[in-house]
Amino acid sequence: MINHPTRRSILSMIGAAAGSSAMYAAMTSLGHAAESPYNGPIKLDGDPKGAKVLILGAGLAGMTAALELRAAGYEVEILEYREKAGGRCWTLHSGDSYTELGGATQKVDFAEGNYFNPGPWRIPHHHHALLDYCRRLGVTLEPFIQGNQNAYLHSSNAFDGKPMRFREINADYRGGISDLLAKATNAGALDEAVSPADREALMASLKYYGVLDDEFNYRKGDHLSAYRGWAKWPGGGADARPEPSEPIDFATVLQSKLWSKLLEDQVTDHQETMFQPVGGMDRIAAAFEKQVGDLIKYNCKVTQIRQNDGGVTVTYVGSDGTSEPRTASGDWCVCTIPFSILSQIEADLSSEMQSVVDNMPYAEGTKFGLEFKRRFWEQDEHIYGGITYTDLPITLISYPSTGYQSDGPAVLLGGYPWGAISNQFTAMSPQDRIKWALEYGSHIHPQYMDEFKTGVSVVWHRVPWTLGCYGLWRDREANYDQATKIDGRILMAGEHVSYLPAWQEGAITSALDAISRLHDRVING
Amino acid sequence: MINHPTRRSILSMIGAAAGSSAMYAAMTSLGHAAESPYNGPIKLDGDPKGAKVLILGAGLAGMTAALELRAAGYEVEILEYREKAGGRCWTLHSGDSYTELGGATQKVDFAEGNYFNPGPWRIPHHHHALLDYCRRLGVTLEPFIQGNQNAYLHSSNAFDGKPMRFREINADYRGGISDLLAKATNAGALDEAVSPADREALMASLKYYGVLDDEFNYRKGDHLSAYRGWAKWPGGGADARPEPSEPIDFATVLQSKLWSKLLEDQVTDHQETMFQPVGGMDRIAAAFEKQVGDLIKYNCKVTQIRQNDGGVTVTYVGSDGTSEPRTASGDWCVCTIPFSILSQIEADLSSEMQSVVDNMPYAEGTKFGLEFKRRFWEQDEHIYGGITYTDLPITLISYPSTGYQSDGPAVLLGGYPWGAISNQFTAMSPQDRIKWALEYGSHIHPQYMDEFKTGVSVVWHRVPWTLGCYGLWRDREANYDQATKIDGRILMAGEHVSYLPAWQEGAITSALDAISRLHDRVING
């Protein structure tokens, strides 16, 4: 009765003979499983014979280096500017306060347990190193909702400024291009490009993909409404028949430009499944700090980095600048200080390395954490997590991916402008930033003004320990290799020394690479 | 410095004058927020003066009716066939046992805390009534991952049976049709269908949507790899530059037919965000049962339903058929017994209603809960929740949307064949079903055989209390209205009396509709 598989694949034969490990190895060699430059916990074999590594910065790069170097037998010391570890892996919790460059202090007045991640806020499924450290260090993860088809696409210049549901634009755009391509194919326009057999498969696929009717038109009906949503949604009992919705005219969809956000959750960095730590991104920093906190000297502002053939000596003062200069030294130094800061520190670097350090601008970025009295986006609009995109300067609104359906106040990300548009917020007082975030957001959620409770903002060019959001390469092809060289006895690490700028995965993998090269030098000379 | 919004929308003006409630009402009247036939908790005003309603079945429909009718002042009694409430809202937990029609008993040998939902397993974001009951009754929800771009699309007849990542087929199909439509547009094939201004927007949109190069070709490169995945993924430190992957030839994509699963997470019922209760779907049943458990008589097998102008009298025996017949009665009866069962019970129904009851086949459906020693899909293949689709008879594999990265055994849904393909499993012994689920699944995950621990299967035509998965309408247009009529003193409710067949939302909203009509009759005659 069962259709027995008519042939066994090579894989099944390998599997029968050799068990699943061999089979998985075979799959990998067929190119189907290989994916990540991270292949599990780093192995640093060989005795470093008490060599000491001085690490500058206790962000994820610095703490990764410290954790693994100590495990490999090194003596390790970390100098950290702040009073706690984590760097940009940072969460503002209820009761925290934060003073930005310029002196403005914000008290975080959120309800107990509420929080806001000013820095990284989501973890892609393919950031294998970060995920593996979360696993090893016991950080509990929950899904971060990136793509929510019931959230909005909004343009001030389309649909009279009325936000549209993502699913409406998504289905209507997909239907519109499928309809056009079916017409062109039927008209013979693709006879040269597509063989007859492929043409048949193409037409069948367009009918499915565009949700076209039997005449290959994208046209109002039940089938289509099952994708774009209904005018009246189906229910139970009497009078429960759904009513189909009216698709938007394709020319209107095109001219709205709202299609320009349809791939936001289709890029690998944003593809479902994504994660966030339960309780805030800084749970990752805290888990690392639990391991290496005893190696960290806090509140140390590095003022000078000297090196010679024998090692590295760093001078530092208290972060408030008042204490007497002290020194720390090591045989080697892993420097994770952002180049935006490092370029202002007197350091014995080669002229080539100094030039790379001096020529890296840092990205602008602003984030707003807004707390409202209730989850009106869930209660009134049925938006559970995910992101609304807008052409207003706030660029997006991201709804919390946790505590769904709970009562009481909740915090959403009220905007994440980056690049040039962020500068207007950099120049404002914290109060004005919140005022404008609310003003813009209320064009999408009119409940904003009535429901607002409190807010906090972080403009990254005013963050004292980074002076920017993440490193930008002016010419990565020309300069990247230099940044990854061992410069005398100093190695650079951090997101800025990676092809994953701004991502925690970049910081961690750059640190793993740096200490692996350092260890090789120590062991093999 | 800020671009002040140059004009205020109607909504903002309303908002300034009247606060957010008025504004939200205005939005709704503009058609932008209206969405659900469920508009919050039901209100049953007026005194039923002690009228008694007898409810048959303690699934979600029956318990919803009981909860709301008691709150409105009715006397309520529920007869339930099983030893517990919930009906198809059902979870098999470690330690449970289940005896199917035919007598085979399966012991659920999962590790402590592991479970499997044989019935409903996910909650769409627009199932407002169900979500609202979860909120009111304190059922904690977590995201159910439906669409996972790192899961597989698999066909025995394509790519030598090798599973492909969803993201690869997704990006390459989207790129392929965008490339073709751009070519057709450039060749003038759409000059009549599309105005010059729209043509420009169309080309810009295709370049974005298809990730085309400057010549509007879908061609190997970094930009494209950011969507379909990389040959070598980006990392940090030296030698971290990513390498672009090779897109699949479009004709191969078309002939693979794997595009036929690309919209699985695009239909409203499966669109992100979806939910599941923490701990198993039966947490919903348990939450209802906590409210109305005192009204339920368990282990009652209804044998006869009599009615006259004065009320309804039901005869029942013990579920094992051994006890003496007893009776229960009410002024009215809400009958949630599936028509597959009701058609076998002697009942005083109008001939029109009896005909509807007798002519509803029930859908086939089989589910496999397979427990493995470890989460190899996460550890080896980086698949966190979501669904792999296959043309093998198991049809899909759904990975657990909970406990990510945890050690120890975990349970996945090893298949969900429904319709005709399910029948082959109905005929097998539970042992053989698991054997075949493993055999088929191992074509996708060669780790299956080595890592398998234990499994359980439910074929819905062998479930004694439903004899099928959900009600199918032979001719809904002709017969639906009859099913929702008050038949003397009996009303039907359940997923089968809804436009949301198989869904819990259909059961709940049909019950709400039934009691609302019943109450109107009681109050207004």
UniProtKB/TrEMBL annotation, chains A, B:
Residues 60-514 form the Amine oxidase domain. Its EC number is 1.13.12.3. It catalyses: L-tryptophan + O2 = indole-3-acetamide + CO2 + H2O. InterPro entries: Amino_oxidase, FAD/NAD-bd_sf, Flavin_monoamine_oxidase, TAT_signal. It holds the Pfam family Amino_oxidase. The keyword Signal applies. Pathway: Plant hormone metabolism; auxin biosynthesis. It is an enzyme of class 1 (oxidoreductase). PROSITE patterns: TAT. Keywords: Auxin biosynthesis, Signal. Residues 1-25 form the signal peptide. Belongs to the tryptophan 2-monooxygenase family. This is Tryptophan 2-monooxygenase. It comes from Paracoccus angustae.
